[in-house]
Batch of 4 targets.
Target 1
Amino acid sequence: MKTNANRLRRKTRAWPALLLFVAALAVSAAPAEASTGGASTADSGTPVGSEIAFAPMQWAGATWYGPGLYGHRTACGQTLGPETIGVAHRSLPCGTTVKFVYHGHSIVTQVIDRGPYSRGNAWDLTNGARQLLGFEGSGPIRYAVALQYARHR
């Protein structure tokens, strides 16, 4: 009887320690900053942020923005240009790491702005992010928020 109780106690103590370890890894994994304004990768090579744990993939509406705003500062303090890679979201904190998948292409980038301001969409992709994904116009896109930020949604 005592051995089973001891084994059960050890197992229940191991889960919080494992979860704490995974959370520490996710928080300590600092995404690389690209000169374009956010961490990002295309399908080729090892993705930046591949060591980051993400929430399950979800679907949401997305648009893209940029041409009339190039040269202006984003809500997170970056200067927007045609090659800037990032996304806008209404409520996630600046710097939130997000993974996007669209028609076989994927990127890992960060929230760099507020928006979108179009009805029914959750994300605004910069032109650089749009090009990497092959995203045209507007429509549904798959995304996953890094676990350390997932609670803010």
Target 2
Amino acid sequence: MKKDIGVGVIGIGMGLDLVYLNEKEDSRFEVRGLCGLPLEKVKEVSKKFGVGFATDNYKDLINKKDIDVIVVFSPDHLHAQHIIDALNANKHVLVTKPMVTKLEDALRILELVDKKNLKFAVGETCRFYTSFLSIKKMLDDGELGDVIFAEAHYVHDLREIIPKTPWRVQIPQDFMYGGCCHPVDSLVWFMDQVDEIQAFGVNSHVIEGYPIEDTYLINLKFKNGKIARVLGAYGVVKQPYPMMGLTIYGTKGTATADFTDFEPSTAKVVLDKIESKPVMEMNFKADMTGAYGQGDAIRRYMADFENAIVNDMKPLIDAREGVKTIAALSAAWESIRSGGKTIKVYDNF
């Protein structure tokens, strides 16, 4: 297959997970440029993987004529500017989670995407884990009936990761957006747009030097009247259960899926139609590829994005879908700052 769609990558941490594209015979994507810091390292990895262009200036990358797609893997607080500049350069854009860290930035991006008729997607790995995909299919096929209630969590002891990514404390990273985006987006995927939110947050002081809340409880009510809850906790001692989890309680059955970096994942279901209500379990092998063992999920969302560009389709998580999650997270912060008041989620988009 002809490699006729040039890809530029901003960020050479998880961004290096994309170099597989150049050897993937059934993909039209080709990584033609890398951007990151320091320049010496960018040049080194570019040479190692046979990528022809290396820079520490992202504007040089997005202005290259042979690059059609920009993939943003920079630190969270830089996403908005990198996305906006790439869209203004008429490039299709995929950004790793979170889309951005401010609702106003998400709305500006949505406006630009619509105006320029470009493809945009959020690389939210939870929608591409095999365990999560399996229970979504069960729901879509009617096996679980109508949703009654749902819950999701993302609990992660980040202390061993922070020395490798010190910006998380120095900036600091906003864990509401950078962490809770996973469980909240999973619920948006299953239950659509959030209508109201009530949230509480505390600073655990487990992460030395981290200045704001790092632990959250969030109650959500959706436009369709369904309800759910989220636990997001990042200033914790490693938990004795899977890092991520999603449970759907339906009128015909209950299903749960989990995920932990570099570990096998499972999906379990109880169907009301089966007498004695046995727990049926599906086991999925561990993903050992890419940063944090999420390489397979990244490959799935890159394939989804390529399909959207080539066949003029809607990506699974397009700009409008991405704004739904950012709007919910923004309302959660507003609720925390108000002492736990219920906040209406912005929906005028």
Target 3
Amino acid sequence: MDLAQSCAVVDGVLTIKKEVGWTSHDVVAKVRHLLGGVKVGHAGTLDPAATGVLPVLIGRGTRIAEYLVEWDKEYRAVLHLGETTDTQDATGTVLASQATDLVTPEAIHEVVGRFRGPIEQVPPMYSAVKVAGVPLYKSARAGKTIARAARTIVIHTLEVLAIQGRDVTLRVVCSKGTYVRTLCADIGEALGVGGHMLALERSRVGPLTIDQALTVNEVVTRHALGRLGDDLLSLDLALGQFAIAVVDEQTADRVRHGAPVPAAKILRWEGTADGERRSHAPVRIHDTAGRLVAIGKCPETSEDALKVEKVLIDQDVRSSVADEGKEQEGRNPWHYSKKQRLS
């Protein structure tokens, strides 16, 4: 089925391999136009000069953005030592240059090791972070420097992959909110010679990897062939790290209207042991047919009702629809079946 003709049931996450020169907004606008005006968004901005994985949210997929931005991210970055720029990357103006002859590989490894784990990071001036309601990049373009507070981020993995002259290739796995160009600049400063990010590729966002990603041109081709749906990740799979509360059809109908789920109406829990369910953690709410109806919030105690936060299925959907797409069960879990369109 052509996706533009079935926009009412287009829901999922498309993994885009963003190329140099495209803004994240450019990619979203292209996909939206391609799908005939379907609601489209993204989870995790990439600068125009950066490349790699950009999760594009389609249809009801835009409703789960707040959960997907929590995913960790993996990057391959090149730090160029000895030059400091105003943007902390290669697109900026060089502010200072220093010789790097005395910087040894041992020193690089030692300094890089200091940046692993929880660290404090000051957002760069050229960023979308708002101070007093004004994005920092607007102030930077006006020649202003604004005081901004440091934020705690987590660098889960930081490895030196290669050292070639002034260029240090790094593998970074980090929490949300991390600016890799700031990390590069801070490492250069700690080495005493300054530095900026020369290149950046995002190789993974949560479970979405670059080898699964499509370029914009590939998306256009797949759509023309009527095959783009095969590359969509369903909402249920995208939220697969969350526990599942299974409810009966009557309760599911109430959930579709935003009603909370009494503890007695939860038929069973799946995907996690009782002791692993954290209070206020997101929970997937499934009906007995296995369809994702909504996202809820785990109650404080086993006696409390499960609050509904996001309804992800239309109120007029009937349980008979759950039988659709059975002929496609057992296929690649990334396949976008009719059942997944309603998840």
Target 4
Amino acid sequence: MDRCNAGSSGNAGRSRPVYVILTSKPGQFRTEIVDGLRPLAAYDYLFYGTKKATFVIAELLEDTKIRVIDEAWSPQVVNEVPSKFLEKFETPERAFSELQHLTSFGHMDTKLRKL
């Protein structure tokens, strides 16, 4: 199974770490790294050579609220999304595998470029 059921009790009750995927889309919204997250890898998503998004795979160290800034509004709107709503993965490799699955569309020219 690629995903794990981490529940909402935080890492204090977990015997193993869990990993999440954070997304930012230029001009639309950006997700910020906050206390309780440890970024491991970042990737630009390219669609026919044009950057469409940036993804960060991060270890969830504890339940937290992820800061998402909506850049489409002036002034910018800040939302704090509880980490319990994020999909969680057992390993960084499984998170990356899911990211590859989410960003590939048949024979379209899509790439994940490691930062």
